[in-house]
Amino acid sequence: MVSYMISASSGRPVTKSQLAYETIKARIIDGRYGPGYRLVLDQIGRELDVSAVPVREALRRLEAEELIQFERNVGARVVAIDPTEYRHAMETVAIVEGAATGLAAPLLTPEALARARSLNERMRQSLAEFDPLAFTALNAEFHEVLFSACPNPNLVDLVQRCWTRLAAVRDSTFASVPGRAPKSIEEHERLLALIEGGGDPAEVERFARGHRLATLEAYLARER
Questions:
Q1: pTM for the whole thing?
Q2: How far apart are CA 160 and CA 93, in angstroms?
Q3: Which of 35, 101, 146, 174 has the fewest CB atoms within 10 Å, i.e. the most exposed one?
Q4: pLDDT (tens digit per residue) in 84-93
């Protein structure tokens, strides 16, 4: 017999394994479980009031998503992305998200564009008391508004998977290169103007891809 609990994120009944998966994944993404953090089955089980079995099942799913890894004589730890892997991941995001944004552009409603502008304005206002992680969250939400209208669900899923992988990097790019933040906001404005002006989807794709690569280049330039 499969027992169910209520998911905090969705409010829907879920299995204990799904609850453990959602909880652990959310904590990796929001930074509570940073790179190298050791995930202890019994400890998590006690916290969620479940046995170690559903926690172990959840960890295997997260391992398949490359958010955690199992180490001999240690157990499960949250993975970190090295600079080379980060570059590869960002290049992938630039390509797939650019394509999804280009395809989505003609389908974006005035309401969606208004929401994107509102998010970008919140990003601009946040510069006064800059919080890199909060800025990154708003940035991700902004881009999701634009690419989620893509008519190809496989492409949307691929973009989201790429972002989930990148979310395992707790050190926000904007924490390393805060000077990139105001430039990113201005590029958002240009991207929105291009979409609202009926720009060719291929042109929108190129701009969105270049925008992502510019963030990556700013990070790499600092590392060099």
A1: 0.70
A2: 9
A3: 35
A4: 878 888 899 9
